[in-house]
Amino acid sequence: MIKALLFDVFGTCVDWRSAIAREVAAVLPEVDALAFADAWRGEYDPAMARIREGGRGYVALDDLHRENLHRVAERFGVIAPDALSHAWERLDPWPDTVAGLSALKRQRIIAPCSNGSIALMTRLARHAGLPWDCVLGADIARDYKPKPEVYLASCAALRLPPEAVMMVAAHNGDLAAARALGLKTAFVPRLTEYGPDQRSDLGPEADWDVIAPDFLSLAQRLADGR
């Protein structure tokens, strides 16, 4: 029986692209804000990969975002203030997110299993109204998804075996990593996470335990035992 739900956050719960572009436009009006947002996000995985692969000790995502901000700003020929890196704490939820999470919270424990730090996830939850029971993820494991330690540390923090926990994500790779460790899986697509020309994660790439169009549908299916 599923006792807890863990959630990917960036892209699955919140629309990072629109919010980041909005903040970039306010601070750096001379650049293409959407292109800047995409480039900034493009540095996300390479920065974490250096840590996952052992080339660098654990560095919280807050700091990686700031480093990546300046790397991208240099590429665009502008100077970005450090404060812009806090834009990742002010992302907007998808329309179904808050109501869906609230419905799911009435059934089970809910928590993020994100690459964001506890500080970042806490401030983002306050901004976006995400009703987590607690905050788990990278800071607990001191590593980054999809490393097994991140999922397992989150389960261990709840004192639950992996088979009693479901990972919810809009990214097939995240779910594949969780399933390999024994977690249940739920796929909720976010078809415009990367904008209107998105090419990846447009549908399920495996027979995930639950496939739902949004969080409210996920809550209903879990309530119905489907």
Automatic annotation (TrEMBL):
<keyword id="KW-0378">Hydrolase</keyword>
<dbReference type="InterPro" id="IPR036412">
    <property type="entry name" value="HAD-like_sf"/>
</dbReference>
<dbReference type="InterPro" id="IPR023214">
    <property type="entry name" value="HAD_sf"/>
</dbReference>
<comment type="function">
    <text>Catalyzes the hydrolytic dehalogenation of small (S)-2-haloalkanoic acids to yield the corresponding (R)-2-hydroxyalkanoic acids.</text>
</comment>
<dbReference type="InterPro" id="IPR051540">
    <property type="entry name" value="S-2-haloacid_dehalogenase"/>
</dbReference>
<comment type="similarity">
    <text>Belongs to the HAD-like hydrolase superfamily. S-2-haloalkanoic acid dehalogenase family.</text>
</comment>
<dbReference type="InterPro" id="IPR023198">
    <property type="entry name" value="PGP-like_dom2"/>
</dbReference>
<dbReference type="Pfam" id="PF00702">
    <property type="entry name" value="Hydrolase"/>
</dbReference>
<dbReference type="InterPro" id="IPR006328">
    <property type="entry name" value="2-HAD"/>
</dbReference>
<protein>
    <recommendedName>
        <fullName>(S)-2-haloacid dehalogenase</fullName>
        <ecNumber>3.8.1.2</ecNumber>
    </recommendedName>
</protein>
<dbReference type="InterPro" id="IPR006439">
    <property type="entry name" value="HAD-SF_hydro_IA"/>
</dbReference>
<dbReference type="GO" id="GO:0018784">
    <property type="term" value="F:(S)-2-haloacid dehalogenase activity"/>
</dbReference>
